[in-house]
Amino acid sequence: MSEQVSSVYDWQHIEIYARQIIGKKAFREVSTFWQEKPADESGHREKLPVRLYIINYGSKPAPSSEAGYPVKTVKLCKRAVFPDYPKNTVTGTRKSRITHRYSLVLLVEYENGEFMVINLPRQLSAPGSYREGITLAFSNILGSDGKAPVPQHMNAGDISEKLSVIPESGSFSAFEYMMAFPVSAFGSGITIAELDNPTLQSTIILSNLKYDSDVGEPVLIPAGEESFIWTTAVDFMLYEDIHIKLGVDQDIVVQGMSEL
Amino acid sequence: MDSFTCPDINTGWKPVIREDVQDVEQKEPLLSEATDTIHTDNYGTKKNCPNISEILRLLDETERMIISVKRLLADAEGMHYLPCSAKTRARRKLRRRILRSMRASWRCPSCPSR
User: Fold this and answer.
1) Domain ranges of chain A
2) Which of A94, A132, A254, B86 has its CA 20 to 30 A from that of A217?
3) Chain A residues within an 8 Å CB radius of B44
4) Digits of tens for pLDDT over chain B (114 positions)?
5) Which of A17, A101, A186, A191 is most worth mutating to test chain B (most B CB atoms within 10 A of its CB)?
6) Residues B2, A212: contact at Cβ < 8 Å?
7) Rounded to the nearest 10 degrees, how much is the dihedral formed by the CA atoms of A42, A91, A252, A187?
8) What are the backbone dihedrals phi and psi of residue A40, each rounded to the nearest 5 degrees, phi first?
């Protein structure tokens, strides 16, 4: 039986819906958890690992605190990304801003063989602001009053980055990483008309998560009210690849026959 | 560096959030100061207007004049309650006269027939 060939006269207008990618950008090994090194004389800033002071096993706040058992290793257990994040904002100054909120779960092993799970930033406090039953680590990315975060900034060329901690009813719920860069970085000459297109959408992919943890020396940290607590300094940094695409909806009309 | 095995996070396609307000810290320049920038319409096409700098200068002048008149009116309202010195009154009277003469002498450069 021969296959029936349709004539061009039988062709129809077929409307196909598609998403046209108008620009994409990949940022490789971006540090999304860092601490800012104060600018030197030339104004050059640098990203440093966040220095965490993890409380030693068995150490309690006291005027002459017991040293306890220092930290042996720190491993990343989980990085929990908040619902609806990361998200992309196009600003009035023609910049694209990626906002990313997450929390970290660390597995800490002590010199005595004990383990502890730490949830950051929920169990993080500023030095001198120890909270009984909550605090398991200290960091200077929180203000000395223990209530307000100290945002970390980094500007390199056209790209500006910020890391902050989101307060929530007397505690901290998430780390917030923001990166802003000019729309021109998408590299395909996006026009104003395309940016104003009501169907403009974006997709963000976070991949290849890596971390660095470097366990340092024991440090005596003020816990508040003339009491101190023994901790271990741990330098911790996160890296990941960030891919972002911008697209608009297109209706394409073709001539042909539908198989259905 | 330790790699951490976790699934990639893919947000999927989502509408872009638009933030139309410019940075608060960024001060808006006077219109005449913005003549060096490339003016484009909504479709990214360059505008070509030879009289733009003159028009913008006049707009700035008008804007300053409006501010001055507003201040003058505010001062005049306050006079009933806060009497000022004869010197201040004379200065205001002079300013009013200058403004009147400026308004009378102003002609639109784009309309030579007027």
Assistant:
1) 15-38+46-252
2) A132
3) 191-193
4) 776 677 888 899 999 998 865 443 333 334 433 444 444 443 333 444 556 667 777 787 788 888 778 777 776 665 554 556 778 888 888 888 888 888 777 777 666 654
5) A191
6) yes
7) -10
8) -85, -170
The rounded distance, in Å, linking the Cα atoms of B65 and A68 is 74
Examine residue A63 and say whether the peptide bond preceding it is cis (omega within 30 degrees of 0).
no
Q: Would the CB atoms of B4 and A205 count as touching at under 8 Å?
A: no
Element holding B10 (H helix, E strand) = strand B9-10
Residue (of A255, A200, A260, A259) closest to A15 by Cα position: A255
Contact between B3 and A89 using a beta-carbon 8 Å cutoff: no
The model's pLDDT over A212-251, given as tens digits with 9 standing for 90+, comes to: 999 999 999 998 888 999 999 999 999 999 999 999 998 9
